Amino acid sequence: MLKKISFAAFFLSFCMANASQISNGIAVIIENEPITVNEVRKAAAQLQTSEANALNLLIRDRLETAQIKNLKIEASDYELNQRLQKIASESGMSASDLRSAVLSKGGDYAQFKDDVAKTIKQEKLYQSIFAEAKINISENAARAYFEQNRDLFAHFTDVSVTRYVAPSMQLLEAARHSSPMNTNHSVHMDVLDLKSEQIPPQLRTIFQQTADGTFTQIFQTPQGFEMFYVASKKGQTMPEFDEVRDEAMNALYKLEQDRVIGEYFNKLRAKANVKYLR
């Protein structure tokens, strides 16, 4: 659930700086940590967003880092190694293969490990925030949300997909960049025409959210790794609440998570020492 967390952007106003302040490349100083103009521009380009939104995200990152430090949240060597092993396993690799893969792509493995450790710390922070908030979603609340947002739960009646199964993630990654019907002989394919009611709810939601003519993400299964090419979706049906009860509860839970996180970091930002230099 944590991986799906989305954040509301903060509204930021900018102060005008003198020429020397602009030339030193610092946009904001938050809790004595600078955010440079170059960082903002780089983040905006990578995320394909405005510089204002990029700055919001960088401020959030600094606030997270400061709060993790304040709460003395750590990622132990054991936790880090376990997570690295999990990442490798999910990619069909050993831990040493993972290191080689990072290096072969020009990456810095030490930085990669630092990023993984940071993710573990962030997860611990959010877990503590949610535990303190005690989010509880009742069925009645989920039903009311469903009734007010029925269009969000409409889905197709029929879908044509191609299912790909392979022993490694790399084979499926290669299939993504080739013709949908032209793949390595180690990749097994099934062309399927399915009715909506034949599909498990979670997979149906994934198909609904995947644009026609594109691939889903890759999943690890007992058979290896698999993904789907969604050729086309047809028709539309409006389910009853009982058919999408879990989906409605999960959607409402996520909204509550967003609200809790937004309030938490708004309070931190209000207390933080923030100086705008640009």
TrEMBL record:
Pfam families: Cj1289-like_C, SurA_N. The keyword Isomerase applies. Residues 139-233 form the Cj1289-like C-terminal domain. Residues 1-19 form the signal peptide. Residues 52-120 form the SurA N-terminal domain. Keywords: Isomerase, Rotamase, Signal. The keyword Signal applies. One of its GO terms (molecular function) is peptidyl-prolyl cis-trans isomerase activity. InterPro entries: Cj1289-like_C (IPR055131), OMP_Chaperone_SurA (IPR050280), PPIase_dom_sf (IPR046357), SurA_N (IPR015391), Trigger_fact/SurA_dom_sf (IPR027304). This is SurA N-terminal domain protein.
